Amino acid sequence: MPRFVRVLLIVLAVFLAFLSGVYLGGHSYRLSPLFEIMPQSVRSAFFPGDNVLQAEREIENILEEKFYRPVDPSTLENGAVNGMVSSLGDPYSAYFSPDDYKQFMEHTEGTFVGVGVIIEPRDSVLTVVSPIDNSPAKKAGIQAGDEIIAVDGQSIQGKTPEEATALIRGEAGTSVTLRISRAGQEQDYTMVRESIELPIVSDKMIDHNGKKIGYVRLEQFSVDAGAKVKDSMDKLVNNGAQGIILDLRNNGGGLLDEAVNVASVFIQNGTIVTVQSRDQATQTYEARGDANESIPLVVLVNGYTASASEIVAGAIKDDHRGKLIGEKTFGKGVVQNIDPLSNGGALKFTSGSYHTPAGTDINKVGIEPDIPVTVDPNSPSDQVLDRGLAELAH
After folding, report:
1. Which of 136, 160, 332, 334 would bridge with 94, disulfide CB 3.0–4.6 Å?
2. Can you give the pLDDT at residue 376?
3. Does 80 map to a domain?
4. In the chain, where do the E strands start and end?
5. Is 307 among the residues known to form the active site?
6. 3-class DSSP state for residue 158?
7. At 51, is the pLDDT very low, low, confident or very high (cuts 50, 70, 90)?
8. Which of 93, 318, 319, 323 is catalytic?
9. Structural domain includes residue 94
10. Which residue segment(s) compose the domain that 334 sits in?
């Protein structure tokens, strides 16, 4: 076929497809009738993935017409998208349906309806990073490190944290049962869902051997976490604190900008973190200024100190601003982006890896504390906190 004829056919086909409502890069299962009757030879000239698109459409039609029970088309559509994302093999990438995305945004703003567990995948198992204080999960006895096996009898093996969270959440006043594996033993916990407001930051003054030590506990890096930590820090210092303990244990992370804001409460100048992505130059996030660098600082960490928490811990360690005390951290050194979609949902995907100011990649490795503390679960005292107090009191 002469080249000019081939080009003319391609242009004409694209134009007709556009008029018929085909959006390149959009949902593959909403092909226009004109596109479907277009000759295969013409479509293949400029739609190299059309065989896959056709197969998806054919599967959808077969299941809608012949599957042994009625099929909701939206279920198939969500399944196709979820399958695409899960094929990446990345436990942190996920498709958010419109409802999932709404719930996710509520969570970053500090309120949601559920039982109050923060979960992350660990060795392909969904693990409780932290039960939120005063939540149904905390009151029921759920602990950090518990592995969630099933929700209301439905196995969650192979599900993403977002899919599991969607099963756990529901209307306030309704119940949900989590099957938990702990130290090889399985047990069911039934809880009543309720509206939960995350206590982003809490603080108190501790008198230890005649010395005033300020204690700041950060639950997650949601909106305004940095400002709240600074408010607590200023209050404690103004009330005579001679040292500060920042507790990041069981903190599963959150927003990157808030990690930089929190670190900037303690570090005046220099790099907080660098982010490396596939097609962009390395992004460097610097301290914002206005820090208090004179007051002694320790940071409490454990195996569920993850993501944004590790950004803060890594920056403080590399800057020698304070000492990390406790256990090696989780080891989540990748950054996710959230891109909204036209259907009201969103795509969460891993967009880069982050590195501490010294250039350390901590993904799947974690950060070693400056002062390790082996925790005895049978001890009635908080051994890590006690070690932090001792470090600041001498």
Report:
1. 160
2. 87
3. no
4. 94-96, 111-114, 117-122, 125-131, 147-151, 154-155, 175-182, 185-192, 194-197, 201-208, 211-218, 244-247, 271-276, 283-286, 297-301, 323-326, 334-340, 346-355, 371-372
5. yes
6. coil
7. low
8. 318
9. no
10. 201-393
Counted domains in the chain? 3
Per residue in 92-110, pLDDT tens? 888 888 888 887 787 666 6
- The mean pLDDT of 352-367, rounded to a whole number, is 96
Regarding whether 217 and 191 lie in a shared domain, the answer is no
The question of whether 135 is a catalytic residue gets the answer no
Shared domain check, 222 and 159: no
**Per-residue pLDDT tens over the stretch 129-155:** 888 888 999 999 999 889 999 999 999
Shared domain for 271 and 365, answered yes or no, is yes
Catalytic residue among 232, 264, 307, 309: 307
Q: Are residues 173 and 217 in the same domain?
A: no
Highest mean pLDDT: which range of 63-72, 80-89, 268-277: 268-277
Assess whether 254 and 343 both reside in one domain.
yes
Which residues have a Cβ under 8 Å from the Cβ of 255 and sit 6 or more positions away? 108, 221, 222, 223, 225, 308
Q: Please tell me the least confidently modeled range out of 125-129, 152-156, 179-183, 389-393.
A: 125-129
pTM for this prediction: 0.71
Asked if the structure places residue 388 within a domain, the reply is: yes
Is position 356 within any domain?
A: yes
